[in-house]
């Protein structure tokens, strides 16, 4: 199994893992939260290779993403005219740039899984503008299984393969840290709660100092908090041994507020301890 898929939540039926070094997209089925190999397909990637950084560099990004939409052949023809031919039977946009990409200063948009021109069976390994291109037949097969907003797409430069069950230790470690964070928040232990955040923490707008001030201020008005987490997924980040992405449904209630949201956190290992580097709505 790929090292990156630490835990899938029950609603995620499949996960797609792209090995750019082998021009291969692997399809895994979710069985009890762990990935099981189903099949694989040949793919073409960016003509300038991998590690996308800026708009127009014709590179394919590396990271943890998910499918955000579905674009039919008819929509492509309506929106792109003659240019639509390069996308073939259809397209599946993914969530590049993600929160980590933006933190790292990466930009650009429009990274898709898509088909190929109808007069072409497949394209050379390095041929797209940064997207992941499959034969129209393979794209159609994948499109049937994809869940919009749910199906993860992990893109790596060489997949790290591990034995089934090898990710159990990391899954348990991260699950315990997330539960400790949840419990400290629910118990209104503000110092223990804030200790879960890394020194380089950012929401994208605020750093740790501003975040801490806001949380301390809000905490003074709470007499009780109830916090439940559900549909938790955990992914190790490609190319990093110290970075993980945790996404979950957060059901929050207190004496003066009730809210529900889908939240995403990036956890980084600092001095052997996992702490939150980024937190925000998913």
Textual characterization of the structure:
The chain has 282 residues and is α+β, with helices and mostly antiparallel strands. The chain has 2 domains: 5-156, L,D-transpeptidase catalytic domain-like (Beta Barrel); 168-281, Nuclear Transport Factor 2, Chain: A. The protein has helices spanning 73-80, 99-103, 136-145, 168-186, 190-194, 208-219; strands spanning 5-7, 14-19, 24-31, 34-42, 45-46, 63-66, 71-72, 90-93, 112-114, 126-128, 132-133, 152-156, 197-202, 225-236, 243-254, 258-270, 273-281. A 6-stranded mixed beta sheet has the order 1-14-15-16-17-13. A hairpin with a 4-residue loop joins strand 2 (14-19) and strand 3 (24-31). The chain starts with a strand and ends with a strand.
Salient structural properties:
six-stranded mixed β-sheet; five-stranded mixed β-sheet; elongated; 37% strand; 282 residues; alpha+beta; L,D-transpeptidase catalytic domain-like; Nuclear Transport Factor 2, Chain: A; 6 helices
């Amino acid at each position: 199994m790929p090292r990156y898929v630490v835990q899938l939540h029950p609603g995620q039926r499949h996960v797609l893992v792209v090995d750019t070094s082998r021009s291969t997209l692997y399809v895994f089925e979710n069985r009890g939260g762990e990935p099981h190999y189903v099949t694989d397909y040949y793919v073409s990637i960016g003509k300038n290779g991998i590690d996308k950084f800026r708009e127009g560099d014709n590179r394919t990004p590396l990271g943890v993403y998910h499918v955000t939409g579905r674009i039919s052949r008819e929509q492509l023809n309506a929106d792109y005219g003659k240019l639509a031919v390069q996308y073939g039977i259809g397209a599946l946009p993914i969530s590049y740039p993600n929160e980590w990409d933006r933190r790292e200063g990466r930009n650009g948009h429009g990274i898709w899984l898509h088909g190929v021109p109808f007069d072409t069976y497949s394209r050379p390994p390095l041929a797209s503008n940064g997207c992941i291109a499959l034969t129209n037949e393979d794209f159609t097969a994948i499109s049937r299984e994809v869940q919009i907003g749910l199906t993860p797409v992990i893109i790596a430069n060489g997949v790290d393969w591990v034995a089934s069950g090898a990710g159990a230790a990391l899954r348990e470690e991260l699950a315990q840290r997330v539960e400790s964070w949840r419990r400290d928040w629910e118990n209104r232990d503000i110092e223990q709660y804030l200790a879960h955040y890394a020194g380089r923490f950012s929401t994208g707008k605020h750093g740790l100092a501003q975040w801490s001030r806001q949380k301390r201020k809000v905490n003074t008005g709470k007499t009780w908090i109830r916090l439940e987490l559900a549909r938790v997924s955990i992914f190790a980040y490609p190319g990093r041994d110290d970075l993980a992405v945790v996404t979950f449904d957060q059901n929050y209630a207190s004496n003066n507020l009730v809210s529900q949201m889908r939240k995403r956190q990036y956890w980084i290992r600092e001095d052997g301890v996992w702490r939150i580097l980024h937190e925000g709505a998913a």
